[in-house]
Structure formats: C-alpha cells, structure tokens
Amino acid sequence: MRPVTLHTLMHHTGQARTVKWRPERLSTDTTRRLIRRGRRSNAAVRVYVTTDRDGRSMHVAYVEFGPGLYDNVDAVTDIYEIPTEALTSL
Predict the structure, then answer these.
(1) What is the number of domains present in the chain?
(2) Structural domain span for residue 66
(3) 68, 42 in Cβ contact below 8 A?
C-alpha cells in the first residue's frame, strides 16, 4: 500500500521558473526514511497537522534542501501528504 503522495519542487540556478515533478506515491516506511535523510543532511523539516478536502486528518511534511546539495540547483522542496490513518496503522 502506498498512501503517501510526494510532490517535488526544484529551482535551478540562474532560472526564474520552478520545476514541479509529477506526484509520486510512496509507502509510509519509505517516507519516514526520506524525511530522516533530510534531517541528517541539515534540511529544514517542518510537519503540520491539517485536514484534506474531505475532512480526513493528515500530516503535511515539508523538507527544504538549500543550495549545495545538488549541482546547479538553488533549492529543492519535497512535500509529503501523509494520511494520519497511515501513521496510526503501523
């Protein structure tokens, strides 16, 4: 089961536009591993609790990687949409 949706935004050096990758479905375990990796690499990690359009509880995690992690990239932001029921069912 892959209940988590990942959205990635990337801003290349010297370009005015931001590249948005298509949403990707992930498992909860993979998501935890990727968020931990962000914390280890000194990325800014923020987690918010909110509801989706249907009123279901969910967590939204932002992992913001600054310049220096990737070549010719100023910033990468990973946005994880995690249903709360996926976290509590582990």
Answers:
(1) 1
(2) 4-88
(3) no
pTM of the model: 0.87
DSSP E strands in the chain: the ranges are: 4-12, 18-20, 24-26, 44-51, 57-65, 73-83
Give CA angle at 81 (77, 87), nearest 5°: 125
Whether 35 contacts 46, CB under 8 Å? no
Q: What dihedral do alpha carbons 33, 36, 42, 44 form, nearest 10°?
A: 100
Annotate 49-70 with DSSP letters as a single string. EEE-TTS-EEEEEEEEE-TTSS
Cα–Cα distance between 52 and 83 in angstroms, integer? 9
Q: Kindly report, residue by residue over 57-90, the tens digit of the pLDDT.
A: 999 999 999 888 888 888 999 999 999 998 887 6
